Amino acid sequence: MKPIQVGLLGMGVVGSGTFNVLLRNQEEIKRRAGRGIEITMVADLDVARAQSLVGVDVKVVNDARAVIANPDIAIVIELIGGYGIAKTLVLEAIAAGKHVVTANKALLAVHGTEIFAAASAKGVMVAFEAAVAGGIPIIKALREGLTANSIQWIAGIINGTTNFILSEMRDKGLDFNVALQDAQRLGYAEADPTFDIEGVDAAHKITIMSAIAFGIPVQFNKAYIEGITKLSATDIKYAEQLGYRIKLLGITKRTVNGIELRVHPSLVPSKRLIANVEGAMNAVMVQGDAVGTTLYYGKGAGSEPTASAVIADLVDITRLHTADAAQRVPHLAFQPNAMSDLHVLPMSEVVTSYYLRLRVADEAGVLTKVTGILAATGISIDAMLQREADEVRAEGAVAGNVQVAQTDLIILTHDCVEAKMNAALAQMQALPTVLEPITRIRKEELA
Question: Which domains does the chain have, with CATH numbers?
Answer without folding.
Answer: 4-135+303-338 (3.40.50.720), 138-299 (3.30.360.10), 352-443 (3.30.70.260)
